[in-house]
């Protein structure tokens, strides 16, 4: 391996260490307490080394959130591929989204700015629309099967996304006084009622 390749690999390793340390710190201390200094201390480098790889904390958070959207997209695709008809696909996709949110709270909070500023403000994340796109596709297919007006698919799927995201947000921000089983039941009932209404 040449000198250039070695330096490139070292640079990539430091970058990965920075992202891993930031995510680990967020899990133990929360996103709000994260700082460039804490990340530098965690990887045992000086702060300027961290700034060599990322312009600021926001750039680190943006990178981590993209990874979160990528992981979510994989889970949604797995759920979708387990079923053939759009009704079952829709239920499975919503269920996978719900499970991802609570299995990966730190990711979800960062991805959607729950209790904090949303990372990458003003920057479009291609992965951001994955869930909404899948909801739209299933909704459109169900409407088509039922012979309803396909022009309603966009509005209807957006309403379902809002309901699902809203339930998750409420539960994450007020989980002490709301039983998780009640919210999951509400979610399942909402999806069933949504399918019937199309």
From TrEMBL:
- Organism superkingdom: Bacteria
Family matches, as Pfam families? TetR_C_33 (PF13305), TetR_N (PF00440)
Q: Where is the HTH tetR-type domain?
A: 12-72
State the UniProt keywords alphabetically: DNA-binding, Transcription, Transcription regulation
Task: Name one molecular function that GO assigns to this entry.
Answer: DNA binding
Q: Which residues bind DNA?
A: 35-54
Q: Does the keyword Transcription apply?
A: yes
- Report which residue ranges the record marks as coiled coil: none
Q: What is this protein called?
A: Transcriptional regulator, TetR family
Q: Supply the source organism for this entry.
A: Chryseobacterium arachidis
């Amino acid at each position: 391996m040449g000198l250039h390749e070695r330096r490139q690999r070292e640079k990539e390793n430091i970058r990965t260490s920075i992202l891993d340390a930031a995510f680990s710190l967020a899990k133990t201390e929360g996103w709000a307490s994260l700082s460039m200094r804490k990340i530098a201390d965690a990887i045992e480098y000086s702060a300027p080394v961290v700034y060599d790889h990322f312009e600021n904390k926001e750039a680190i958070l943006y990178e981590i959130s993209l990874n979160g959207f990528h992981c979510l997209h994989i889970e949604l695709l797995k759920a979708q591929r387990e079923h053939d008809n759009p009704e079952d696909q829709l239920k499975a996709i919503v269920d996978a989204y719900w499970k991802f949110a609570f299995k990966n709270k730190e990711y979800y909070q960062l991805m959607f700015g729950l209790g904090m500023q949303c990372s990458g403000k003003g920057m479009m994340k291609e992965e951001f629309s994955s869930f909404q796109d899948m909801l739209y596709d299933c909704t459109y297919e169900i409407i088509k099967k039922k012979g309803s007006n396909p022009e309603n698919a966009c509005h209807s799927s957006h309403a379902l996304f809002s309901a699902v995201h809203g339930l998750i947000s409420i539960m994450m921000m007020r989980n002490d006084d709301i039983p998780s089983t009640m919210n999951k039941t509400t979610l399942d009932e909402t999806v069933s009622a949504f399918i019937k209404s199309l």
